[in-house]
Amino acid sequence: MGQAFLDNSLWRNIYCVLAGDSTSCAARDYSPGLLPAGMEWLAFTLAAVAIIALFVNGILGGVILLIWGERRLFGRFQSRTGPNRWGPFGLLTSVADAVKTMYKEDLVPAEADRILFNLAPILISVPALLVFSVIPIGAGTYVADLNVGVLFIMAITSLTTLAVLTAAWSSANRIAILSALRSVALLISYEIPMALALVGVIMLAGSMSLGDIVQAQGIPFILVQPLGFFVFFLAAMAEMARAPFDLTEAESELAAGYLNDYASMKFGLFFLAEFMAEISTAAIVTTLFLSGWKGFEPIPSQFWFAAKVIAVLFVIIWFRMTLPRLRVDQVLKFAWKGLFELTLINIVVTAILIAIWPQPTTAELWAMAAINWPVAIISIWGVSKLLGTPDYEKPFPESTNPVYPVDSGSIPASSVLNADSSAVVESGGDQ
Amino acid sequence: MAIRTQPVTVNLGPQHPSTHGVFRMRVMFDGEEIVDVEPIFGYLHRGSEKLAEERTYTQIVTLTDRMDYVSSMLNNQAYILAVEKLAGIEPVPRGVWLRMIASELQRVASHLVATGFLLQDLGALGTPLIYAMRERENILDMFEMLCGARITNSYLRPGGVFMDAPDEFWPALDRGLDDIIQTIDELEEYLSGNELVFSRTKGTAVITPEQLINASITGPMLRASGVDWDLRHRAPYDYYDRITFERKLHTASDNYARYWVRVQEVRESVKIIRQCVEQIEPGPVRPSFDDVPRLIRPPAGDAYVAIEGSKGELGFYLVSDGGIAPYRMHVRASSLINLTLLRDMLIGGQFGDLFVTFGSVDLNMGEVDR
Amino acid sequence: MTTVWSGSALAEAIEAFAPGSVESSAGSDVWVKPESISVVCEGLKTRPEFRFDLLSSLTAVDYIDHFEVVYHLTSLPMNASAVVKSRVGFGRIDPSIASVVPVWRGADYQEREVWDLMGIRFAGHPNHKRIMLWEGFPGHPLRKDYVTYDQSIASGASEATTLSDGGD
After folding, report:
1. Between chains, do C105 and B215 touch, taking CB under 8 Å as contact?
2. Which residue of chain A comes nearest to B248, CA vs CA?
3. Can you state the percent helix, strand and coil of chain A, rounding each to 5?
4. CA distances from C20 to A221, C32, C46, C103, C159 (A)
């Protein structure tokens, strides 16, 4: 564990400044340290606490900004202004919302299982934060570089569903249960294409460490792995239950699904976790497919990372703004009959390419991209043909036979009260 | 080994974001499949029919506004036509043209609301709804020019309308009609290329024309099943016999067809309004008080008049005993009757289709409960 | 233009297939005896000379000494309309008539509404419950003798109720 921390340049700098240890940080002379000699253990701990505080607060600040940005973008998409009253450009709207949320009455349903009901918001926020620990947000800026980083992310993100299930079960609400069942179905279905979509990336990078994957991206893997990106992006959208896969919340069907009975800051934690999941998804996509923090000098790598994350977030919000929701059976069909096949095609093609170029250089990556893109376009087209909604067999409105005969009979004029006006039957309103 | 499951009963509504008002459904689910549906309503019942018995014929116009509050002008028109038939009032031409323009604008507004909310129920998070509502806003502005009110208009009076359109109304109308066509083009583009909308709406909640007719359901729902039945054409009221328009039919009778018919009807309504604007002639907008007194006392008897409302046949049945207030007023509420087949349309379907179907039926709780 | 059946012609035509079912006719209206309403409606819907396949409206009027159930019928194939009425509940004692839901599904909610607000029973209705008001609501508000809450306070009565046949 200690070694993993020591690789982290951000942490190391804090540690060296505190401890005055110049052997770990050879770049410049740190002695004397802020702490007296022999207190390296304290420096170690303080540096760890500092970096955790930095990450957690950074993420929370990012969430606040994201909520504001999302609402502003919603406004733009819907030809209105969006929140612009509180602070410059309405930047403090989310802060005001957070304060309001905290001051709300904390209601717990009488039927609820109190322990689980209170546990669920914690359960959902911890994994949402943990995901960020392995993501390198800049050159040497990360909490830990696990050598199984990809596996860690897959494992941690699926814990969210456990929290959703706990929340739904403990609030003793049938609508919430329906929503949790949908969440579980989504997890089971989309975890497989999501994991398989990453196999190509792992094969190319030859490592599961996110740091190594970023290093391996001579060109962004989105160019080399278009199918992998396509599947992973959609599966990640489904995993975090974003439109068009927002079945668990499904405002127009389940009202708010598993969140129905939560109020005050418990709801706030769920809300935070949801947006943290959005940021973490964007961060993972950036790391795995958009070459992470890489960019050209002199712009710092952290800014590159942030810019790419914001771009991905914009696409996610764009999706949410424009697309209607799919039905449960269609979502599951899409996973098993669509994405699953695409990942298998991707794995086979990538495996063949890796067999030809075992250690791909940048030029060889471009060659792979040239082969992968036609494969991706053809296979996506094929799957969309397979799963698409068939058009009506009979074109409309040219139906030769009237479905229901109208005006096909006549009654004797002697029976008619308004006999004189019945003479104008044909002229009335006809073309 | 099969898992033993049992259906779950869930109450959806009366407070629910997608029930278009205070409507409640007791739904029995087997997993995601709908086993049984029982619509429960009455939360908005205000006793309009009873209230009408204590008001004069002119005062009741304001009550009709509040029945189907997204198509007030059409309610006004149906009621006024019933009063005119009961009291034998001959309307003045300019008043009739104006109220035809007003009611067709209202039909456009109502269809836009229906279309927008259908897409909202599909889960499109507001964007198409706001686009539709933006256009409706223009129409409401025009209503404001016509009568000073936006939603509860009370614009029509027995024999015509209560005031003439101001000069600035006509250019605004011309501009507004172009905008409506543009919005409809936008919406159709959104629809025609959107696989998600197709997969959600095509082939869901199919119902045969025979069932629809047997359940007294008319309007866009019936036309979406291929039956050429439009009261504006079959039983022309006002000056609809001087107007040519197409009745747009679809044969699929599913959610998509109902949506499609509404969108096309907006185009036809725009054509109708343009023809009205061409044919309108100067003159008084309502008969003088010598011809139609402020307190109308129709002779004893009854009259039933139905018009093509935005949601189907909208009828008013008035009984007079010779007094200044109707002895009995009954509204043939199309929204209420359109609900008759809701259960048949939903059973066997998926939960996700429930509110889509509900949106495609297009109902207004103010009219259902009255 | 929709053709409207004259009352006398319709009465004659109804008498032809259901003898003794018509009480009287005037203008466009035909009054049918309540006990034969099912037979008459079935005939009006299915017989080729009428084909009234659409029940436009079903309502009821309180005429103090009796109630009148009004059926407005439309024929899509013939583009014709007709009015059938039926007088029930003379003396305000238990007004009741056969349900036409087996003939037209569209009568379902309309009959429930008439029962709820006017208090006319429809024998054979599959779901004979109140529709707008809640079960146990005192009286039927559209009746002419219904005492509203305000009136009941003014007159000192403890609870809003009708003078006759209150509740269900």
Report:
1. yes
2. A397
3. 65, 0, 35
4. 88, 9, 19, 21, 44
CA distances from B211 to A99, A351, B40, B254, C105 (A): 55, 58, 22, 13, 8
Domain with B333, as residue range(s), is 8-369
CATH number of the CATH domain containing B347? 1.10.645.10
**Residues A85, A207 within the same domain:** no
Report which of A157, C30, C79, A250 is spatially closest to residue B123, judged by C-alpha positions: A250
User: What is the tens place of the pLDDT at every residue in B149-189?
Assistant: 888 888 888 888 888 888 888 888 888 888 888 888 888 88
Structure tokens at B358: 């509900």
C57 touches B317 (CB < 8 A): yes
Q: Please give the tally of structural domains in chain A.
A: 2
Rounded distance between C-alpha atoms, residue A85 and residue B177, angstroms = 34
Residue A145 near residue A136 (C-beta atoms within 8 A): yes
By C-alpha distance, which of B44, B64, B119 is closest to B362? B119
User: How many helices, marked H, and strands, marked E, lie in chain B?
Assistant: 15, 8
Q: How many CB pairs under 8 A join A and B?
A: 149
In a domain, B221, yes or no: yes
Q: How far apart are the C-alpha atoms of B111 and B263, rounded to whole Å?
A: 7
Q: Is residue C161 part of a domain?
A: no
The residue with tokens 């499109």 is B124
The alpha carbon of residue B51 is apart from the nearest alpha carbon of chain A, in Å, by 33
- Phi, psi (degrees; rounded to nearest 5) at B29: -105, 145
Residues B60 and B82: beta-carbon distance below 8 Å: no
Whether the ipTM is more than 0.95: the answer is no
Q: Prior bond to A397 cis, omega within 30? A: yes
Indicate whether A17 pLDDT > 80: no
Average pLDDT, chain A: 80
Q: Which domain holds residue A51?
A: 1-103
B45 at interface of C, judged by CB pairs closer than 8 A: yes
Domain assignment of residue C123, given as a range: 3-133
In a domain, A98, yes or no: yes
Q: Are A73 and A171 members of one domain? A: no
For chain B, give percent helix, strand, coil, nearest 5: 50, 10, 40
Question: Which residue among A63, A79, A103 closes a domain?
Answer: A103
Beta strand C29-32 with C80-88 is parallel
Predicted model pTM = 0.83
User: What is the pLDDT at residue A311?
Assistant: 92
What secondary structure does DSSP assign to A332-346, as a single string? HHIIIIIIHHHHHHH
Q: Using alpha carbons only, what angle is made at residue B314 by residues C66 and C139, rounded to the nearest 5 degrees?
A: 35
- Number of domains present in the structure of chain C: 1
Give the pLDDT confidence of B102-151 residue by residue, as tens digits. 999 999 999 988 888 888 888 777 788 888 888 888 899 989 988 888 88
Query: Are residues A74 and A216 part of one domain?
Result: no
Chain B residue with CA closest to C141: the answer is: B50
Q: Flag whether C154 is in a domain.
A: no
Residue of chain B minimizing CA distance to A406: B228
**Which tokens sit at C97?**
């008539």
Interface of B with C in 338-367 (CB under 8 A): 339-341
> Rounded mean pLDDT of A373-396?
76
* Type of residue at A374: P
The verdict on residue A427 lying in a domain is: no
Is-contact A66 A311, C-beta < 8 A? no
Among residues A77, A103, A129, the one where a domain terminates is: A103
Residue C34 CA to its chain's centroid (Å): 9
- The answer to whether C68 touches C86, Cβ cutoff 8 Å, is yes
Looking up tokens 């094969």 gives: A203
CA–CA distance from A155 to each of A128, A204, A235 (Å)?
12, 21, 15
Going by pLDDT thresholds of 50, 70 and 90, the confidence category of residue B255 is confident
Six token digits for residue A181? 């069942």
State pLDDT tens for residues B239-251: 888 888 888 888 8
User: Considering CB atoms only, which of A243, A252, A431 is closest to B120?
Assistant: A252
